[in-house]
Structure formats: structure tokens, C-alpha cells
């Protein structure tokens, strides 16, 4: 059992033991909280049958839809077991290929699980195609949709699924995970990672593994003291890198959101409204980044500018 997932597991197990299992499920919660791990384990529980041996590796009755490699070079890296860049969306052809599989019977038992990671990365045409399967699900087919941003899913998709909410983990729970998964991180690094994680252990691990400490410090300086001569933004660009990969780019944007939340929390209530717009725009970047093709350099300057605006009330108050 994964840390912090007691309630979702209990609800899933009650549903499996019930007389009629709902055909569509949405696992909703922050990116990096463990929803994919849960989905894979839940799918294995779903398709397993007494007396039928189950393969340890890929399962023929578990279909996983996720963004494909970005290009042939990245596809080669995937095939070699190396880290690779993906496309930003799940294409409609992937959904249609999956639907073709649903016209056949499951291979080992009576049930088949379809995991979509993440459903909020579906192209509009892909989402509409998926809706048709959710409206008329084939017998024995069950859908598990992972959603980092539940509001981005079509209301018609949400209405046809049961939602499992994944709560944020406590600082203590994340610290235990960091000590196990990232033993190289000292207490100070773990504390900074936990502060920036917003309850997501995956975000905390990214902080350590991607060495985001210097970036975090620069963002805090910009949000606190501003950046009138653009020097801090220049250093921020250097720290992030000219061409960061998608994982680093997404982690950086999420880190900026965490810094903005911290800045709001430390600002007196009377002045918070002056910071709310910058915070809202950073949240919008977090939402859009996985599916938008931002220029890395311009994106860093946009993040730096929004953080610098959050320092404006304090600068004005001191002349």
C-alpha cells in the first residue's frame, strides 16, 4: 500500500467486493502524488481471477494510454530503456486503437482495465472519442482515468465516472519517502523539498533529484525583493538551463507556484489582494504547461516577472 492512500484503497476495495463495479473511475489529485502507481496496482486487482496465473510484467488485459515519444529519436530512447521526451497530448488515434482492442474478449479472464495517464492530456478529439466508450462501455471493460487537473476534463466524462480523491500527504509522510527514495538529501534539502512540494511526494523527489535548491532560492529572492535590474531573472535563466527537458520545465513551473503560495501566506491579509493576480497567472501556467509549447527562455522570464510583481507591495511600502 502506498503512503497516504488508505482512503482511496479502502473505497476501491469496497467497490471490488460489491455486487456491481462501476465501469469508469477518475483518480484525482496533484501531479506526483502516486495516482499512476495506484492505477496500475488497482488494475491488477481488477483483472486477477482465482486459479488464473497472472504475468509479473506487462499484462495483456491492462491497456495503458499515455503520450507517445516526441519523435523517432525519443522512441529509440524509450525502446532502449532510457529517459525520453513525450508528446504533450494523447492523440485520437491512440484512443481509437484502444477502442479496436475493446471489440475482442479479454485474454486471461473476464475483465480488462484501461488506464489513461493523464486524462487531462487528451486532445479534444481524443476526449470526445473516449466519451463514446464511457457512454456504452463494452462488457468487462473498466476505465481508470488519472487526472491532475479535474476541471480540465469534459463535464460529460466526469459525470460518467466515480471520482477517487487523493489527498495531499503530510510533511512527515513526505519526509519518510524522501529518506527512503533520496537518501543523498540532507535535512536542509529535505525541508526545502517538503516546503515546495505542496503535499506531493513526486514533486519533492523532483526537487531533490533535479537539484532545484538554487532555483528555489532565486525564486524566493525575486518574490521577496523584486528584480528591478533583471539580474536575478538572468541568474534564474542560467540555473534552469537554456533548453530544460519537459520534466525540469514542469517542475520549475510548479516550484514557482509553491513560492507564490508561500509569498501569499507570509503577506498581511490587507495586502494579499495586490498579489492575487500574479498568483492566479502562475497557477494558469501550471495548468497550461503540460499541453502548451512554450519557448523555454520566454517562459522563465514570464515566471520571473510574475514573481517580481509579487514583491511590488513591499517595495512600495519602503519607498
Automatic annotation (TrEMBL):
Compositionally skewed regions (Basic and acidic residues) per UniProt:
73-82
Q: Where is the signal peptide?
A: none
A GO BP entry: DNA-templated DNA replication
**A GO CC annotation given for this chain:** DNA polymerase III complex
Q: Which domain of life is it from?
A: Bacteria
Pfam families from the UniProt entry: DNA_pol3_delta2
Location of region: Disordered: 51-86
* Name of the protein: DNA polymerase III subunit delta
Q: Organism, per UniProt?
A: Croceibacterium mercuriale
